[in-house]
Automatic annotation (TrEMBL):
EC code: 2.7.4.3
GO-annotated cellular components: Cajal body; cytoplasm
Binding residue positions for ATP: G13, G15, K16, T17, T18, R109
Nucleus found in the keyword field: yes
Region (LID): 108-118
Reactions the enzyme catalyzes: ATP + H2O = ADP + phosphate + H(+); AMP + ATP = 2 ADP
Homology family: Belongs to the adenylate kinase family. AK6 subfamily.
Taxonomic source organism: Pyxicephalus adspersus
Pfam families for the chain: AAA_18
Name of the featured protein: Adenylate kinase isoenzyme 6
Transmembrane segments: none
Gene it is expressed from: AK6
GO biological-process terms attached to the record: ribosomal small subunit biogenesis; rRNA processing
Subunit: Monomer and homodimer. Interacts with small ribosomal subunit protein uS11. Not a structural component of 43S pre-ribosomes, but transiently interacts with them by binding to uS11. Interacts with COIL (via C-terminus).
Amino acid sequence: MKHPNILLTGTPGVGKTTLGKELAERCGLTYVNVGELAKEGTLYEGYDEEYDCPILDEDRVIDELEDKMGEGGVIVDYHGCDFFPERWFHIVFVLRTDNSLLYERLQSRGYKAKKLQDNIQCEIFQTIYEEAAESYRSEIVHQLPSNTPEDLERNLDQITQWIEQWRNDNN
């Protein structure tokens, strides 16, 4: 494997997609937005009326990604992480955003009250970070602030340096 696999996770609205696309472009990696992958392949097992969204078929997502992940050089973007095989990732970044900013971002996406409230609580209680910490070795799980354009640049620089170091150490 010439390139590492990276998981970008965090509550919806924290900036995973912006970071992931830019990182893939800078580092020559493949970017996979699991939500888009599921939409394109209709990888769903139903619809959640309460949250007004499809329910991901996690097994079909795993099957769809298995070969690509084995090749390496993939950035996976998804707001959940506990169903991905631990062996897939060399590093996991959990993006975190201040609640007031997150609220504005999700509101601008048209999230309804319950979905908005539940996602804010998810961020407050560090639900995604805890899920990542329980699912992967602690030394590969890192939290990154994602509030400002400066945070985005710092995160891009930090992860790019990590990728370069990984490539040097593993090739």
